[in-house]
Amino acid sequence: MGVTTQQLRAFVAVADSGSFTDAAADVGVSQSAVSHAIAGLERELGGGVIDRRTLTLTRLGQRTIVQARAAAAAIAQLEAIARGDRSITGTVRLGAVPTVCRGLLPDLIDEWVSALPDVRVDVFEGDDAEMPEWLDNGFVDVAILVDPERQPAESKIIDVDEYAAVVREDHPLVELPEIALAELADDGMIVSGGGCEVHVRSMFDTAGIEFSARHRVREMSTLLAMVEQGFGVSIVPTLGREMLADTLRMRPLVERRARQLVLALPDNREPHPAARALLEHASSRRAASKGADRDAARDAASDAAPHAAPHAAPHGAPHAASDAGPGAVERAAGRTVRIA
């Protein structure tokens, strides 16, 4: 009989949601229909694709989900064209690092919502090293890569920002217009092992300064909380200013280092049609690199102003995702973030 469209859609829906109930709602059929579709697909493929106890992919499921996802997306586009509807539809899985999720994605998603209203973007947050891996193995359909060694054929530089120092507002170094790496080294570096550490270490090596991490953490939120509590200082990309608490300040580095953020499609398979549309409708930016300079100038002006009002929170102070309006990014289970 062969694999059917309904089986492919059910398989992708269960893989994405981790639930037969949610998959049924996504596909628009009953839960029993989804179960029958998965069972039929497994008969055709000669093995199980979904572990019924954990609702995760089996080895066979992991080997076939990328092709199933691409086939389901292509069929949806074919059906739309047959109906005379040439609009782009579908769900795209996008990978991005924390600073991009907070500092860049909200604006990008606003663009995509306007240009591609029938495309849903599910965002998966990971570290720098995970992005090319996820793109290559099909865990995501498109990713925002950080300083890739080789820029994929179908890709676009969508932003360039810089690394900057983060210190408490009462730290002596906050008075400097720029902070040298040597000064930061003396105060104890806090780094994110899964994120910026490799870039920070490279900066120290280039400057001929011995690098030593006093604290090494996984999450950017933990890193910033430790700086706020006085455990040390750190270096993060300027897009990270969106995550700063009221008591933290971002300052430019004397030894400037920029990073490129590249929106990329996979090279090893045919891209998801809707992912290609996201790439086409993503505009490039260059303003983010000025973030630390702008914050420093604003703080200096505030300090110099006579009879100034109580010090305001820095640009990008954290706020609840529910207050951020359409396109806000919030943390869900694990390291997956969903678009409100």
Structural account:
Strands 3, 4, 5, 6, 9, 10, 11, 12 and 13 form a nine-stranded mixed beta sheet that branches. Strands 1-2 form a two-stranded antiparallel sheet. It is 39% helix and 20% strand. Helix 1 packs across helix 2 (20-27), helix 1 (5-17) crosses helix 3 and helix 2 (20-27) crosses helix 3 (31-45). The longest helix is centred in the first third of the chain and has 24 residues, at 59-82. It contains twelve helices and 13 strands. By secondary structure, it is of the alpha+beta class. Among the domains are: 1-86, Orthogonal Bundle (Arc Repressor Mutant, subunit A); 159-260 and 290-304, D-Maltodextrin-Binding Protein, domain 2, CATH 3.40.190.290. Mean pLDDT is 82; it is low at 303-340. Helix 9 links the parallel strand 7 (189-192) and strand 8 (213-217). It has helices spanning 5-17, 20-27, 31-45, 59-82, 98-103, 105-115, 130-137, 181-186, 197-207, 220-228, 273-280, 291-304; strands at 50-51, 56-57, 90-96, 119-125, 142-146, 155-168, 189-192, 213-217, 234-237, 248-252, 258-264, 329-331, 336-339.
Number of helices: 12
Number of DSSP E strands: 13
From N to C, what is the helix and strand string?
Answer: HHHEEHEHHEHEEHEHEHEEEHHEE
Kindly report the oligomeric state of this protein.
single chain
Main β sheet profile: 9 strands, mixed
Task: Describe this structure in a few short sentences.
With 340 residues, the protein is of the alpha+beta class. Helix content is 39%, strand content 20%.
Name the features.
about 350 residues; alpha+beta; Arc Repressor Mutant, subunit A; D-Maltodextrin-Binding Protein, domain 2; 9-stranded mixed beta sheet; two-stranded antiparallel sheet; 12 helices; about 20% strand; disordered C terminus
